[in-house]
Amino acid sequence: MKEELRDEISLKAEENLSYIKDLLKDSTDIVFREFYIGKLKAALVYVDGMADKNLLDNYVLETLMVIGAEIDEVEKIKDKILTVSDMREEEKLSKGINSMLSGDTIMLIDGLEVCYVIATRLWPARGVSEPSGETVIRGGRDGFTETIRFNTALVRRRIKDSRLKVQSKTLGARSKSDVAIMYIEDIVNKEALKELLQRLEKIDIDAILDSGYVEQFIEDNKVSVFPQVQSTERPDVVASALYEGRIAILVDNSPFALIVPTTMAAMFQSPDDYYQRWIYGSTIRIIRFFSIFASLMLPALYVAVTSFHPAIIPTKLAYFIASSREGVPFPAFVEALIMEVSLAFLIESTARLPKAIGSTIGIVGGLIIGQAAVSAGIVSPIMIIIVSVTAITSFTTPNYEMASAFRILRFILIIMASIIGLYGIMLGLIITLIHLVRLKSFNVPYLSPLVNPEISDFKDLFIRFPIRFYKKRPEFMNTGDKVRQK
């Protein structure tokens, strides 16, 4: 239930102070510093550990208690006495209290029907470092942190344009988390921006602890396995998306930015594709697409061919597979499921382990489990090879959420292959394709540019053309300013 705070500010600082003390009783981290400016009663209220005490001591308290004693009109305190650069008047006490709980300091003075909000936010923050989940060979090494103002600054550093807009909102009835919506005014997809603001307005929840909360509220299809909102820790990826007319959403306390609208093709693109020469970038992208296809199809094809269509296997290979599966008590379907589930367990446990031992445990665990499974006759050596190749190729997907979606889809195809063989795989792929064709992200088709007739958008799909060919922004994004290179 939403908390109702008082808006009226009394002329008596003591009355306002008593209300705040009663409201925040039993909170030992709230500091109430009462003092006098000449004969006027005044008070500072802030959260210990979130406010800059040096700023308050040197530029507020010292100034007001020494120089402020000579002031003849209380209204002159803000303009002639206080030597802080960032402060504002707030006519509603409720807004002042919310700002104070976010790290600012509120000042109450006798004779004023407003409170002063002084920007003193200085909470513990992690330094800017390279994102561990989106490493690149060539490119920037800075990544987002948990502090929203650091993150907006990292993006602003890459877009020194007066038309870059940053709209601020507060989400969460209790957490009151700061959210920043970033876009370039003359480029942005106006329809997507309007739709995003409407969806954000509908969010009514106690707390927003991470950008993942917002992602689940604003996505188009809640039951699809495919992510319809792109998440990233890299400010250069956000800047690139803004230049294409997309919108970025930054949430305080989260190092992940959200990008909308997004497409399936964007999930398979890496910053490396653009920072290297186009020949290298295109080659890597083609390898990536083949790897993704292989990781999706290999286990299902093995089950389908060995269980339903052994006649299509070359004779020598068929003898090899048959001899390797001799003594295995399970059918190919169960064999594949055992290894896929074991692989999923191994990947998940490695991700949760400390980094110092995670990679070692992953390699050793994989070798031991694989060798033990073959020695025990539970699975065949060919199955170990297929699962290993599947694991290696699945790691080429730059986006973790998309890799997870393909992992789920891989299980579905294995099950369908065990029922009707290759026909099951084809049926599964057709159903998936129908779903993808119908899927949209903020009214932008998810399979763009494949489903769009504009040929120029294909220059950045399977092959990355040289930069000089990118004269216009993607047509499917419906941007304002469409020209990006003359």
From TrEMBL:
Pfam families: GerA. Keywords: Membrane, Transmembrane, Transmembrane helix. GO terms for biological process: spore germination. It comes from the Bacteria. The keyword Glycoprotein does not apply. InterPro entries: Spore_Ger (IPR004995), UPF0353/GerABKA_families (IPR050768). The chain crosses the membrane at residues 286-308, 328-347, 359-392, 412-437. GO terms for cellular component: membrane. Belongs to the GerABKA family. This is Spore germination protein. It comes from Clostridium thailandense.
